[in-house]
Design a protein that fits this description.
about 30% helix; two-stranded antiparallel ribbon; alpha+beta; GMP Synthetase, Chain A, domain 3; about 20% strand; single chain; globular
């Protein structure tokens, strides 16, 4: 396994500690993390969305993403980008999140 793949896997796992404060479910299982890119320099870029466009928690979520990812061995700079395309929908949730929220 390459160092970049290891870092991507560890970042994905670390982001499970970042919960949407309104829903109480982590951003990975909610499907809010669209992409995690790891450059050859081991810098990490995370593309994420929010459940609604006007949601004010973006800066808090970004700070938590950096905080939980920073301790990963060998990681470089961590950047996060809030995107709304494609728009988030409940279909992006994992079965675990759907079950916890009663979505069928």
């Amino acid at each position: 396994m390459s160092d970049q793949q290891r870092i991507k896997d560890e970042v994905t796992e670390a982001l499970k500690a970042v919960d949407d404060p309104e829903l109480g479910i982590d951003i990975i299982n909610l499907g809010l993390v669209y992409e995690i890119k790891v450059a050859e320099s081991n810098d990490v870029h995370i593309e994420y969305s929010l459940t609604t466009m006007g949601c004010p928690i973006g800066p808090m979520i970004e700070e938590q993403m950096r905080s939980v990812s920073a301790p990963i061995e060998g990681i470089g700079e961590i950047t996060a980008e809030l995107v709304f395309s494609p728009a988030w929908t409940p279909e992006k949730m994992t079965p675990l999140a759907k079950s916890a929220l009663g979505v069928v």
